[in-house]
Write a structure and sequence with these properties.
8 helices, alpha/beta, two-stranded antiparallel sheet, Heterokaryon incompatibility protein-domain-containing protein, HET, 27% helix
């Protein structure tokens, strides 16, 4: 397994002690940029460059990005890594989900390099005792943005979200965080409990979930799109 050292912009061999983030994004159909191992290409696609920035700002040094951490022209290495998707994503500290932009990594992560504009939030309705009541308008907008994104329509990103322990979603609306215990939104100062704590399958499409049977997974996965039909099994082997 290889990782990207975000400080040196080089590809390094992973060690068990290394904590790392992973990136989930839409690859696109263009060829991988030319680079000379172990150095990353310069310039990097904006989405990957921004993911490196986020990793460093979160206090971590390493990130896994399939584009460079899998030898694309080495069939043996490619297969070996595809078979380890469960390990790669489930052992990452968190996964950065680039749920914005088009079908390639040129858009960047909103709020990092592309400006997002000031968001106007009017959720606070009032306080009752020690509880603050807020509307869910912006929460819904965030989920709608994820649902409508190219990222959420692709086959490969399904297992990347499903296998991750924690996900940071970047959209043009805001940044949100999801783990098995709670969800948090950029516009709120406190996290929310999971809306579907009983494991409702409506929740599962956002990742960090326990599957409710193979039929649910097949249904959700079969709705996704892929460039090459030959990827159908490989893109869900981890799940």
């Amino acid at each position: 397994m290889k990782l990207i050292d975000c400080q040196t912009h080089t590809i390094v061999s992973a060690a068990p002690s290394m904590q790392y983030l992973a990136l989930s994004y839409v690859w696109g159909q263009g060829p991988v940029e030319k680079y000379t191992y172990p150095h990353l290409p310069d310039p990097l696609p904006p989405t990957i460059k921004d993911a490196i920035t986020v990793t460093l700002k979160l206090g971590y040094q390493y990130i896994w990005v399939d584009r460079y951490c899998i030898w694309q022209e080495d069939p043996a290495h490619k297969v070996s890594q595809i078979l380890r998707m469960m390990d790669i994503y489930s052992r990452a500290v968190a996964t950065i989900a680039a749920a914005s932009g088009g079908p390639n990594p040129t858009y960047g992560l909103p709020g990092v390099s592309p400006s997002r504009g000031r968001q106007r939030h009017h959720q606070i309705a009032g306080r009752v005792g020690n509880r603050m009541l807020v509307s869910g308008a912006t929460d819904r907008k965030q989920k709608e943005a994820i649902e409508k994104s190219v990222w959420d329509s692709r086959a490969w990103t399904f297992q990347e979200a499903a296998l991750s322990r924690r996900i940071l979603y970047f959209t043009d609306v805001q940044v949100s965080f999801l783990c098995a215990g709670f969800e948090a939104y950029e516009h709120l100062t406190r996290p929310l409990a999971l809306l579907y704590a009983d494991g409702d399958p409506r929740r599962s499409k956002y990742g960090v979930h326990e599957a409710r049977g193979a039929s649910s997974l097949v249904y959700q996965y079969s709705r996704r799109r892929m460039t090459y039909s030959s990827d159908a099994l490989n893109a869900c082997l981890g799940v």
